[in-house]
Amino acid sequence: MTSEHSLDELAIHEAQQAADELHHRVTPLGESELDLLFLQARSHNGWKNDAVSDEMLQSLYDIVKMGPTSMNCSPARFVFIRSDEGKQRLLPALSQGNIQKTLTAPAIVIIGYDLDFPELLPQLFPHTDAKRFFVGKPEHIELTAFRNGTLQGAYLMIAARALGLDCGPMSGFDHTIVDAEFFAGTAIKSNFICAIGRGDSSKLFQRHPRLNFSQACELV
Fold first, then answer.
1. Does 3 map to a domain?
2. Whole-prediction pTM
3. How many domains does the chain have?
């Protein structure tokens, strides 16, 4: 009969082996893939009338959930809005400049973060009592949830692009209205929203400059 300890050791060995095999099996991304994810990717303002299916959103989340978070805390919560009714519920919270791009997008996702994430740590980080690190520490909970939820929102954008979709992230909205409308009765707070679909390139503007290495980086 196999002990729990030996099962853990087997799982650890399999994880280590899988990580080693990955680097032998997969080559770094090429120019085309980097263009798709970063170098030529754009934040879109207009959208083609191509639906985003349930299956696509499921595939999207199944990629996003594998991105790293501290202690695997996974605090991000996603509300995918595709219906006209759902968009109308969101409309009062939006700044004027974000209304049209929201109404025409095939899908809008509200990226939130759950302040009750420590309750799921026994499931997500089971080898130690990680929940105790957050008991009676609301500021630590808020900081951890916001930081890691933001990371997961970024993973969502990269994963969407990897699946051939375009993104239009937005921060111009009233968080109080969104939280009351979509997260009432929960400990979830909104972070940012993002349109998802096939972008209409005719609505794009010129790309803005970026900071160069010497402006943004330091070698120590």
1. no
2. 0.92
3. 1
